[in-house]
Amino acid sequence: MAEQELETCGYLCVHEDKVAQVQSALPDEDTLFSLAELFKVFGDSTRIRILYVLFEAEVCVCDLARLLGMTQSAVSHQLRILKQAHLVKSRRDGKTIFYSLADEHVRTLLEQGTEHIHED
Questions:
Q1: Given this model, what pLDDT does residue 13 score?
Q2: Are 53 and 67 in contact (CB under 8 A)?
Q3: Which of 13, 36, 42, 120 is least crowded, fewest Cβ atoms below 10 Å from its Cβ?
Q4: How far apart are CA 22 and CA 74, in angstroms?
Q5: Are 93 and 61 in contact (CB under 8 A)?
Q6: Percent helix, strand, coil in the chain (nearest 5)?
Q7: Res 9: pLDDT
């Protein structure tokens, strides 16, 4: 099929019932904007690498820096972004702050994303 045929119908025929059904199910604009912002955070391979480390274990900035071959400052910057997006959480143990995935939703996003890219 030609690309033009895929973009538009050959004639005007709006299926009002389907349009109404889908329109009533669509999230509001604020939700769509927030979702787009969340997915932007996943657009950086360094942040994905951090999330995969945290997928395996709760670690501190020093551990992350060593594992990823980065400076602590660079890791801290990325953790700040991940924390603002509610993808990671932290806990203090004495002078050390440990980081982990915020919840099972983050684990599921990583698992399903990985599964999706490995589909044939």
A1: 83
A2: yes
A3: 120
A4: 43
A5: no
A6: 60, 10, 25
A7: 65
The per-residue b/e assignment along 35-48, b for 16 or more CB within 10 angstroms, e otherwise, is eeeeeebbeeeebe
Give the residue among 67, 80, 94 at the shortest CA–CA distance from 41. 80
Residue 27 DSSP code: P
Token pair of 81 as six digits: 């972004």
pLDDT score for 87:
97
The per-residue pLDDT for 8 is 66
Q: What is the residue type of 81?
A: I
Angle between helices 61-68 and 72-84 (to 10 degrees): 110
**Would you mind telling me the total number of residues written for the chain in this entry?**
120
Q: Which CATH architecture has domain 57-120?
A: Orthogonal Bundle (1.10)
Could you tell me which residues come within 8 angstroms of residue 54 by beta carbon, excluding any fewer than 6 positions away? 88, 99, 100, 101
Q: How far apart are CA 33 and CA 11, in angstroms?
A: 32
- Spans of the chain, pLDDT less than 70: 1-10
Tokens of 38: 């969340």
